[in-house]
TrEMBL record:
It comes from the Eukaryota. It is a multi-pass membrane protein. This is Ion transport domain-containing protein. PANTHER family: TWO PORE CALCIUM CHANNEL PROTEIN 1, TWO PORE CHANNEL PROTEIN 1. One of its GO terms (molecular function) is voltage-gated channel activity. Residues 131-323 form the Ion transport domain.
Amino acid sequence: MSVKQEDDEPLLFTLEENGGCPNPPEVDNNSDVALATDEYELQPESMEQVHVPEDVDLSWETRFQEAAIYLQEGKNNDKFYTHPRDAKALAAYLFAHNHLFYMLELSTGLLLLLLSLCEAPAVPFLRLDIYVHATLELLTLALVVFELYMKMRWLGWRTFLRHRRTMLKSFVLFVQFVEAIVVLIRQTSHVRVTRALRPIFLVDCRYCGAVRRNLRQIFQSLPPFIDILLLLLFFMVIFAILGFYLFSPNPSDPYFSTLENSLVSLFVLLTTANFPDVMMPAYSRNRWSCIFFIVYLSIELYFIMNLLLAVVFDTFNDIEKKKFKSLLLHKRTATQHSYQLLLNPQGPTGISFRQFDGMMRFYKPRMSTQDRYLCFRALKLNRTDNLRLKEFYHFYEVVDFKWKVQRIREHWFDDLPPTALLIFKGINVLANSKAFQYAVCEYLKLAFLSVLCYVAWESIWELGLKGLSRKSTLMGYSY
């Protein structure tokens, strides 16, 4: 029996009744470090001796497919209580987890947003008649209904009703469906506030998972943000009352004439948009009144605002770290379930390449046999023929590797284009030939003799034999 989970919170260690992993050792719930440490070391080496019930009458093909589904659930962060339990749920799961279905979700979300360009008030040259854009909206919403129906067949109606994000999407869909029918019947468009909720359909698609996660983490970081915000408003009200009693007797000061004006003026002063104008009437009457504004800005702007930013950043960062641990542990649990299904109860410990290859045919059907074998070899660190659980934990890191033949380069120019390769190969052959080496040696000998002759002629010139200067010059040119 499954328990209620958050939309994006992985279900960990709750599958004992389904042949899943045993519970981890108890730890102190207040210690995040201890919890993470124990969860990272969930199963010791004895986990590899998992008992697979022999009364489970599953063919190997069914096991391969279910093991691949568990790994996909770990990758997609699908909760294990949504694992398909029968043939209908399996068919709906496979239909809802392919790129065509993902593109359908993305297209319907974008089309609903683009319809706002054609509805009144709309861009003039894109405006459509009411029955046209209302019909398009109904067709698009019908596609969303089909998407939700397939998800309900996969999840089951009980899990479907417990999923809060899906229920919110269903409620918005129902309201917009009714509103589109009303617009189509009346043939007049009214003020449609619900159009502002259309981005929900786009955010709920597969390709916007990071957007959903960030939105959820923003909402989760609001409680400490609200505490600091209330502290900021508390000081603002105190200074507004104090400013009203200090500066309201001045008839030339419009900023603090009433308590309402005091609150508005100090709120704007928090952004420094009216500074120093808000201070000048009081400052012209009494120079010491500047202390009020200096203290207010020091507390509100420089201290509490920076404290607010620090609290939000720290809270968001903590939530991000916990989410990363949660996703990592969810993947590890998925690999444990998959490992159990791939174990051969009659064979040796570990997963052989036959079981791994069968699972990969469902996990990545387009991957070649060579790539599957290379993936298996990259995971296998021991000298045995089978994969152990500790090695199988690295599945998600290795499965996305791209393999290519690495040629042994004899020369640095072997990867150049054909024309450049031909030129450099010719130069290499010429440089390594005996004739070229002999020519270079002879050239060096002549150069050495030329230097000796040149030095000798220069010495003769210094002794005063100027008549030989022309020959010396010629010898220098020859060098």
